[in-house]
Protein 1
Amino acid sequence: MALLLAVSIGILAGSGVWLLLRPRTYQVVIGLSLCALAVNLFIFSMGRLRSGAPPVLASTTGTLADYADPVPQALVLTAIVIGFATTALLLVVLLAARGFSGTDHVDGQER
Amino acid sequence: MAGWAHHLIIAPVVLPLVAGALLAVYDERRQFLKGLINLFSTLANLTIAILLLQAADADSPGVYLLGNWPAPFGIVLVLDRLSAMMILLTAVLATASLIFSMARWHTVGHHFHTLFLFLIMGVNGAFLTGDLFNLFVFFEVMLASSYGLLLHGSGPRRVQASLHYVVVNLTASFFFLVGVALIYGVTGTLNMADLATRIPALAGENRILLEVGAAILAMALLVKAAMWPLGFWLLSAYPAAAPPVAAIFAILSKVGLYVLLRGRPLLFGSEAGEAAGYGATLLFAGGLATIAFGVVGVLASQAMTRIASFSLMISSGTVLAAIGLSDAQVTGGALFYLASSTLTISAFFLLIELIERGQNPGADLIAVTAEAMGAAPDEEDATSEGGMGFPGTLAILGACFVACALLLIGLPPLSGFVAKLALLAALFAPAGEGATAGISAANWAFIVLLLLSGIATLMTLSRVGIRAFWAPVDAVVPRVLAVEVAPVAALLLLTLVLAVKGGTVMQYMEETARSVLTPSSYIEDVLSAPRVPPAKAGLQ
């Protein structure tokens, strides 16, 4: 599971960075979204990989080792929401820039 | 602080949030009412900031436990000298740029006041928070509103600049998250005071992972603080912003500096075991490189807004280098410099718009080209027709410009001089008592760059000043309202106050520097903050 997660984070981040460096605004937006996914997975993995362990205390018996770390899950939720909102805002800016310059080059002009 | 006054700590976050949310429901046509409400809450924020500063100066750090959870588990807000000072600085800039914007700028786009208040909330929150993840949240609140504010007024240039600004900052946010996640993964805590107690116990690969995490986190902060080579976004974003927005943005780069100033001694202070002193050299070198880049940029700039942006980079670089030295005296001087230069640059951004009003955009560029080509100035347009402003306008603007120039260069009698003097004196003083080693090469480099930055600014600003105020035969007197000059003059007068009260202020700054660099009382106060006792039974 660790290898699978590491490889997927790597692929997502790699493609994200490559797209981020492309000259078209649409590619940049998709690149940012892929990077966001990679980062979210990364944060999640920082709580150690567990399957079938609940993050919230269900009973007073048992030990804390039976539970998953809830903090990264809360963090990743916040990060998803914030990333989502800022990407939406970026899309608006992108459309406005397209409207003003008539091109979707990130610098507002071809070459 | 006790009783109700204790709740004042959270007021700089709650007040702008509530006021901003309230303003969002008002129609855009009631701009004046919105402005009044905003002005009222900004002034209230200023009052609170002053009260907090007094409280922080009198007491040990005030710790506010949200939801009454004890420190490492719940969220804490911490008010100490450093955060109180930064909040006051923010409140002063906010008041000045809001009053400036009320003359006309607030009407050129939607939701200016709401975004403005949310920006203040984010900045205040970042200064107050005691844990890393809330720092991220407040950072994002601040950035999200700054995206909106940068777009304020629209137009191709602003939209283009915003596009770059948003992408750069979103990428920086990813670095922030990865850094925070790594630090949490290694130490299992996000509370900065708790982190400080856990780091000395880390060893081997865990320590390396922590350092990697901190370095990645610092990347995000350094992008915000515009360290060379991470700060090129600033040069397209700030000059494009509407002037009152640029004036308040002057504090944004200070947020990154604040976190570095606060976090480095906490995480990698002298008690951090093997990790102690991590990153100091890099911050110092980066700071020097930023100053050098700023110096070249100031010399090469034609447009005043670019000069202001490069000056901002110089001021960032100076503070960064001082953080890298982590010496109490130098840090004290750097804090004074930070306060003085932030006020100056903010005033300068406002002033530039007043000076350039009436000139057609790009006029200064053409003037230089004409000079270089040896062309004779136009004789035909000698008949002046732009005398609509109030009589002393040019004189007042000129005086303000001279004051700004003195501050940026660091000449007496204003606070820029005191700040540079304090920095230089600290750099020349050998470290520790009885040290005979003399001044280190690093200090020499810092001193030389600091002086060079003054000379470069002097040259550039005298060139620009002559061109703007003396050279034009048919000077167009810009139509300027008193309400627009007042905030500029007030900011500049404040720097005069800083200089006159230099002794008291400097003492405060040195106290601040000492408590920041030896954070043991900070850590203790946060971790042992008393919870509010449960309400008496029967009250239900």
Protein 2
Amino acid sequence: MSRTITVSGVALDIHERGQGRPLLFLHPGEGLQPNRPWLDHLARNHRVIAPNHPGFGGSALPDWFGTVDDLAYLYLDLIQALKLDNVLLVGACFGGWIAAEMAVRNTAALSGLVLSAPLGIKLGGILDRDIADMHGIDRATFMKKAWADPSNGEIDYTKLSDTELSGIARGRESLALFGWKPYMHNPRLRRWLHRIDIPTKLIWGDSDGIVSTAYGEGWKAEIPNATMQIVANAGHYPHWEQPEAFTAAINAGA
Amino acid sequence: MRTWYFSEMAYHPAWKQGIERGSLRVNFPNEAVDPVEAGKLLNRYLDEFRLCDEVGIDIMVNEHHSTATCMTVSVPMALAVIARETKKSRLLTLGNPIANRPDPVRVAEEMAWLDCLSGGRLEMGLVKGAPYEIAPANSNPARLMRRYWEAHDLILKALSTHDGPFSWEGEYYHYRNVNIWPRPIQQPHPPVWMTGMSVDTGVLAAERGHVVGTLLSGGLAKPMYEAYRKRARELGWEAGPDRFAYAAIIGVGHTREEGYRRADQIADYVRTAPLVYEPFTNPPGYNSLGANVAILKNGPRANRIVTDRHGEQIDHRKATVEQFMDTETVFAGTPDDVFNQLKAFNTRMGGVGHLLFFGQGGFLSHQDAMSNISLFGKEVAPRLLELGVPEAAAAQ
């Protein structure tokens, strides 16, 4: 079940389930996939709030909206609009980048941050590619890089409705809008990660071919007192590929 | 119908290697180019363009990047040479890929400079560019057309403003002092052309009165032209054939066999030119949502199929000359054959004022290309000039 909430002029399609401490889940570039099990797992111990990002799934993308800055402010406004406090902010992949941009701005309503294989910062040199070019490889190569076992992530598009396909196609276009250049990162973000003053945990799949665990170590070094947990047999989407281990890592505390 | 000759100045010596690798573009390393050979070919192609002026046809230049199929990397650079070597031909850029250009004012400057150099012979195509041009330019495919229209508006304003400087604070481009020198001879600016494959493009071009061109499929061209005519009528004017352009491969020979052979060799271009590594064929946002839903359902190759005028599905990667003729991708034969085919095409389309004559496409030899241009220019093009609105269309 989802509902639409209009925040700062943006009609957001939001999935909610569970009771308890609020957990705001920001989905990866591949989309929310709300029918997959992880939101239910997380909802055993939390009140899960999972929006489709603007331009993904059923969420609107207004003409004026188009940057990760916009996303960060929008979700800070969402927290305020829902009168949330003591929020555990969880972001995966592209959603991790948004979560970090929120946390460097304002942690007043946040009490914990979980970044699962986040994109968003630049660590290496001018000729180094920290983040795999997901748009410069064919789908089969992408699946091999992004999954410990690519069959875990296969989607039979011929079985999906036009509405679902349209949501996926919109999401792909929107991910490009937000992250095409500089590719999936903000060159300035790394310098501000020191502002994050809440407990922060990094979660990383041991087989992530999109962003390496070494890249994760780079994040850990920039965020005060951050910890890092490796999830076995997971690629770039631990929440998707190992939902039980992912939930356990979150419940163990950020 | 006016004739505009073009070739993409291919580096065909590397095609075999590229085809074996499965990509002629973007990720085909340039170690496959012998730069000395490239220079010889460029000079040869420029000679072929110069012949157009002698035989009385116009000239079109386009550009692509990071590809063995086209060595023209800059339309103004190619036209700068051609403008000096020609006297009468009108010179068309089709085009400037303005959504991939970081600096539209620079585009306006280059176009004004060319118009001055050529004595007011410039026609200015402003195009979206092919999907595989996104990667070499690293331009964002999302909201590409929004960026296109802002660049378009800025270029036309820069060309037509003579009491500047003016400032521009848009979504994508920012300038505080736009004031180009020199300014174009043609006022308020050289004629503008666009390209497209869709009804939407037809409507948008009609709203601005631009020439709209399309290529290689009569089945796609006709609805676009019709949408243009309808929109023009709604806006209170009648769009004549001079608003429409069509690009086709043409092989003309002293015999039908020779014409077909030439067309077949040029058609290798169409068979191989789309060969590009899959992720560069459809960057997210380049195609419409509806097209992307169809691609998700049917796979990425679904859009390589063209319907011929009898309703048959033709795969452009494998088509014969005869099949290409049925999709109106190719016109071929003796000068009489080609004239009659184009006359019938003009009637089917309701009047097309500009033929973009794809007369060299890789392995066609210099001698064949020169003969193709010369025969077409002398024996077909003058008769095409007589073609106007076909009677059936005029009666509507």
